[in-house]
Each structure stands twice: as C-alpha cells, then as structure tokens.
Amino acid sequence: ILKHNWIIMKQTEIVKLSKEDLQDKLMEYQKQLEELKMTHAISPLENPLQIKVLRRRIAKMKTIINQKKED
Question: Which of 70, 40, 44 is nearest to 55 (CA)?
C-alpha cells in the first residue's frame, strides 16, 4: 500500500510557495498520480478516490502557477 502525504497540504499553504517550489510539487504530484494509476490498474486501490483528489490537486497547482506567471 502506498502512503502519500499529498492531502495534508492546504490551499493557503500552496499559494505561499514560490514558483520553483510549485513546479517541484507539481512534478511530485504527477509522479504520484502515475504510480496510483499503475497500482490501480494492477490491483484495485483501497480508496480509488485518491486518484480523483490528486487530479484535482494537480489542476489547482497548475492554476496557481499560471496566476503567478501573470503577476
């Protein structure tokens, strides 16, 4: 079973990160999503909602990165 701490980070904490940190976190989340999808394809996850939550977290990260680029 994979253990991830990606749910712990709150939106307010994400907004405070620098662009470089956001890019690093985004890459980390994308790797985790890939791992979850592979694991789920082999054998079902205990909590398949993890994939949905992680996809949304990635979308929020991308949105924040784009907002910071505009500033």
Answer: 40
HEC string for the chain? CCCCCCCCCCHHHHHHCCHHHHHHHHHHHHHHHHHHHHHHHHCCCCCCHHHHHHHHHHHHHHHHHHHHHHC
Angle between helices 19-42 and 49-70 (to 10 degrees): 160
The reported pTM is 0.79
Q: Could you read off the pLDDT of 17-26 as tens digits, one per residue?
A: 888 888 998 9
- Each residue's pLDDT tens digit, 11-55: 788 888 888 888 998 999 999 999 999 999 999 988 889 899 899
